Amino acid sequence: MRASTDKAAIATIVGRHSLLQKLSAIIFVALIVIMSGRGYLGYLKTMDSHRQAVLENMLFLREVFDNLTNRSHEELFRSAAHYRLPSGTELERNEIRAPSLLSGIDSVTFFDTTGRVLASAALDGVTMQPSLTHTAKALRNIASTQRPQASITCNNDECAESVFIPIISDDGRELIININRNAAGILQDFYNFTHTDIALFAPDTGKVYLASHKQSIVPILTEITANAHLKYTDDEQYFGPASGGYYGAHFFPLKDNSGLHIALISDESNITAIVSATIRDIVAAAVLSSLVLILIIVVILRPPLSRLVALTDLLPMLAKNEFQRAQEGIESVATNRFLRDEIDVLRDVLLDVNRALKEMASSVEEHRSALQSKISALTEANNFNDMLLDTSPMVIVIHDSEGNIQNLNAMGRALSGLGTTIDPGANINHWVHDPRRDISLSEATASLHRLPGRRQQNEMPFFAADGKSYDFLWIHTTIHLQNQRQILSLGIDITEHRRAEESLRWLGAHDRVTGLYNRATFIDEAERLLTSLALGHRIDLILLDIDNFAEFNDRFGFDSGDKLLKQFASRLEAELSDAALIARTGSGEFCVILVRDNNAISHLDTVLPSLTRISIDDEQYSENTSVTIVIDEYDDNFTSVGDMLANSTSTMRRVKNKAKGHVYHAEDTDTRDSRQEKYQMKEALAQALDNNRLVLFFQPIYSLEEERVSHCECLVRMLDANGNFVPPGEFLGIAAEANLMPRLDFIVLEKAMQQQSLWRKQGIDVGLSINITAPTLEQPDFAKRLAEIVKHTEADPERLIFELVETDALENIDNAEKLLGQFKNVGSRIALDDFGIGFTSFEYVRELPVDYIKIDQAFIRFIHERENDQALVRSMIEMGHSLGKKIIAEGVETKEALDMLKAMRVDYVQGYYLSRPVPIDALNLALKI
Question: In which domain, by residue range, is 745 found?
Answer without folding.
Answer: 698-714+741-922
